[in-house]
Write a structure and sequence with these properties.
Layout lengths: L6 H9 L8 H6 L1 H8 L3 E5 L4 H10 L6 E5 L3 H13 L8 E5 L6 H10 L4 E4 L12 H22 L6 E5 L10 H16 L5 E4 L3 E2 L6 H10 L4 E4 L3 E2 L1 E2 L1 H14 L4 E5 L7 E2 H11 L3 E4 L3 H9 L7 E7 L18 E3 L6 E5 L6 H15 L6 H11 L17
C-alpha cells in the first residue's frame, strides 16, 4: 500500500458520507434515560468479539456498568476485544469484566449464566450473518441451528431469570427475504416476538457494517495486503453504517425499545453504495488507479506482477449471478406498522404479528424432522421455509459466493 489507510476516516468520507454518527441526536436526546437504565447494571453480551458486538460494548461502556461478561467462540477475538477496551481512553471499563471463549449453547454457558447472574441487560450477536453461508442442506441446517434454534434455547434459559432488557440482532435481509440467511433471521424475529410477552425483547434490522469482519470491504484490505486482485459485484446496492453506528443502533434499540419492537436506521435510497464503488475509492485513497479486468484469470495474472512501482491495481467487477442476492435492501415491508417520529434517525416497527410459542415449536419440529432425513436437499428445506414464511421468495441461481473470487 502506498498510503496509510485510516479506516474510520475512509468510511466517513466515502461510504456513509457523515462527519458525525447518524445517531448523535438520539444519543443526546435520550442520554439521561440511557444513563439511568445502564449505570451500575450487570451485562451479558453473547457474540461480543465480532464487529457489531464489540461496537455495542463500546457504546455501552460510555456508561458506568457494574459487571460485563462476554461470550464468544472466537478466543482470539475476545483477546483483542479486551486489549482494545483497555487501550481506549473514552470508555469506562468495569473492574468486574470476564470473557469466555465458549459456545452459548454449551452446558458450561448455563453454569456461567447462573453463577455470574442475574443480568440486567443481555444482548445476543452470535449468528451466521453471510449469504455466503448458504450452500447446501448442511450449511442451511447449521445456519438455522445457530440463528434460530439456539436463540430459542437461550430465551428458555432467560425465562428463569428475565433481564430488564434483552436484545437479539436481526438484519435488513429479514424484510422480504430472498436468501436462507434472511429467512433464518425472520424466523428468529418470530421466535423472539413469541417470547416478547414474557420478557422485554427488542431487535434491529440494519445496513451492512462497513469493513466489518468477513465483509467484502474487509476482504479488500486482506486482498491488498496479499497483493491479490479486488473483486466484487457491480450491480448490488447496499445501505451502510459505520461500526460505531452499528453498536449505537443496537444500544438504543436494546435500552429504549418496548418489548416486541423492531428498530431500523432512517436511510434514504440515495445513501446506497455498490461494493465496486467502494473498491475504486479505496484504491484511489491508497494512490492506485483501478485496472479493470474482464475475467478473474486476467485479474489474477496482473496481480502477480504488482510491485512497489505499480500505479494501477487489478480489479474484476461482474453482475451478480449467485443465489440469494437481492439487487437492493429494504428495512420493512409495506404491511408493517412503522413509527417514524419517536426518534430522529431510527424507525420502529410496532405491533408486529406475533405467533404463539406452540406454533414456533411446531415449526421447529418439522424442520428437525427434515434435517434427520439423509436424502434432504437444499430445495426441500427452502420449500419448507416458504410454508412458514409466505413472503420468502428465494432466489436460486445454482451458484454460491464460494464460486466467486
Amino acid at each position: 500500500m502506498k498510503s496509510i489507510l485510516r479506516i474510520d476516516e475512509f468510511i466517513k468520507q466515502f461510504i456513509t458520507e457523515r462527519d458525525n454518527s447518524l445517531f448523535k441526536e438520539d444519543l443526546s436526546s435520550f442520554h439521561t434515560e440511557l444513563e439511568k437504565k445502564i449505570t451500575d447494571k450487570n451485562v451479558l453480551v453473547i457474540g461480543g468479539a465480532g464487529t457489531i458486538g464489540s461496537s455495542y460494548i463500546k457504546a455501552l461502556l460510555r456508561f458506568k456498568v457494574k459487571k460485563l461478561v462476554v461470550v464468544d467462540i472466537n478466543e482470539n477475538g475476545l483477546t483483542e476485544l479486551v486489549r482494545d477496551l483497555r487501550s481506549s481512553d473514552d470508555l469506562f471499563v468495569p473492574v468486574d469484566i470476564k470473557t469466555y471463549p465458549i459456545n452459548f449453547s454449551d452446558s458450561v454457558f448455563e453454569k456461567i449464566f447462573k453463577k455470574e447472574g442475574p443480568f440486567h441487560i443481555v444482548a445476543n450477536f452470535a449468528a451466521h450473518k453471510h449469504v455466503r453461508s448458504e450452500k447446501d442442506q448442511f450449511s442451511i441446517e447449521a445456519m438455522i441451528e445457530n440463528n434460530v434454534i439456539k436463540a430459542k434455547k437461550l430465551l428458555d434459559l432467560l425465562l428463569d431469570s428475565p433481564p430488564e432488557h434483552f436484545f437479539c440482532v436481526s438484519t435488513d435481509k429479514a424484510a422480504n427475504p430472498v436468501n436462507v440467511m434472511g429467512a433464518s433471521k425472520k424466523l428468529m424475529e418470530d421466535v423472539i416476538l413469541a417470547y416478547s410477552a414474557k420478557m422485554p425483547i427488542t431487535t434491529a434490522r440494519f445496513a451492512n457494517v462497513a469493513f466489518s469482519n468477513g465483509s467484502l470491504p474487509f476482504g479488500f484490505i486482506e486482498r491488498l495486503m496479499k497483493k491479490q486482485p479486488l473483486s466484487s459485484p457491480s450491480n448490488i446496492r447496499r445501505y451502510f453504517v459505520s461500526p460505531q453506528e452499528s453498536g449505537e443502533l443496537c444500544l438504543l434499540a436494546c435500552i429504549l425499545g418496548k418489548s416486541g419492537e423492531i428498530f431500523f436506521p432512517k436511510l434514504n435510497e440515495k445513501d446506497m453504495k455498490t461494493f465496486s464503488e467502494i473498491a475504486v475509492k479505496l484504491l484511489e485513497t491508497l494512490g492506485y488507479q483501478a485496472d479493470f479486468c474482464s475475467t478473474e484469470d486476467e485479474a489474477r495474472k496482473k496481480a502477480l506482477v504488482l510491485d512497489s512501482q505499480s500505479t494501477h491495481y487489478p480489479v474484476y467487477f461482474f453482475e451478480s449471478d449467485t443465489s440469494g442476492e437481492k439487487p437492493y435492501e429494504e428495512f420493512y415491508t409495506e404491511n408493517e406498522m412503522k413509527d417514524m417520529n419517536t426518534f430522529a434517525q431510527l424507525g420502529v416497527i410496532k405491533d408486529a404479528q406475533r405467533k404463539e410459542i406452540s406454533e414456533i415449536e411446531e415449526t421447529f419440529s418439522v424442520l428437525m424432522q427434515l434435517f434427520e432425513n439423509d436424502e434432504i436437499t437444499k430445495a426441500d428445506i427452502v420449500e419448507a421455509l416458504k410454508i412458514y414464511l409466505p413472503n420468502f421468495e428465494h432466489i436460486e441461481k445454482g451458484k454460491s459466493l464460494d464460486q466467486r473470487m
